[in-house]
Amino acid sequence: xxxxxxxxxxxxxxxxxxxxxxxxxxxxxxxxxxxxxxxxxxxxxxxxxxxxxxxxxxxxxxxxxxxxxxxxxxxxxxxxxxxxxxxxxxxxxxxxxxxxxxxxxxxxxxxxxxxxxxxxxxxxxxxxxxxxxxxxxxxxxx
Length: 142
Prior knowledge:
Layout: E1 12-19, E2 22-32, E3 38-45, E4 47-53, E5 66-73, E6 77-80, E7 86-91, E8 99-105, E9 110-114, E10 121-125, E11 130-131, E12 134-135
Parallel strand pairs: 1-11
Antiparallel strand pairs: 1-2, 2-7, 2-8, 3-6, 3-8, 4-5, 4-7, 9-10, 11-12
């Protein structure tokens, strides 16, 4: 995983390949939507816990509701789209790395991240730390 970096302050995405118009990415993020895309996730190493949440209702500030928790191990595949809810994927281990590939179709450049405590959302740009076989020089990791 030569082009993979861990940025603890934001989502990490490494664009591996574009197949016509479909991006295949390495990915880490908090609670997020999928901007009306389909998302397939393949676990390459380790394990990920997926926490699925309901969409926030109304404008009242309130904690988000967890609707399901799934654990995926190496070689397993998951699927989500906006009609199924929101989710976050997190490493189930505190000592081992987890690596997953996410395929988004159609691709998107912006999505919303959500604050689990309040349900507030903020628009985020998708940032690729690498594109194809080289690091993106315009992205710096603090």
